[in-house]
Amino acid sequence: MDGHRWKCFITNFLPKLKIFRFKMAIYFYNFDTVKEREPPFDEYFWSIIPKLDRVISLNIKLSTEKINQSYLQALFDQAPHLYSPSFNLNLSSNSKLLFFNNSNISIRRLNFKETNSFDQSYFCNHDQCIVLSRSSLGKQCEVLSIRVRHRRSILFLINRMIKLRVLNIRYQDNQHE
After folding, report:
1. pTM of the entire structure?
2. What residue ranges do the domains of the chain occupy?
3. C or N terminus of the chain, fewer CB within 10 Å?
4. Distance between CA atoms of 134 and 125, rounded to whole angstroms?
């Protein structure tokens, strides 16, 4: 479907929908050429869907170390009622998770569906838990689903995330740590 057909389809049918699922996969294999490509959410996209006012839940797959925070923030800005983003992480344990610095005042629930490239569970290390707890998303989070590598991270998150009401957690039980 070309851009014009998409525009007609969205303009005619989106206001009538109660549930709209939009899935878009964007892959950058060579980061040296990223600057030459159009961003995933360009002006044309936002002219068709100027606001994502009704979006309350969003599944975001992050599978690279070089996450462009401005794209993610633009998406958050267009979804003022976003309550529950789910992040499917495919990152290394050394990732800084800079996207925690993004903000949206309506986000209250964070769900991290962590997998690595071998489709095995990915657990956040303690440093990543510290970054999360200090971030704006972490400070306003009320419901958190996450996997952590160390038991001490559980207590750390409970003590530092002051608005936390519900914590769904799985930890990597490694007796030798």
Report:
1. 0.69
2. 49-171
3. N
4. 15
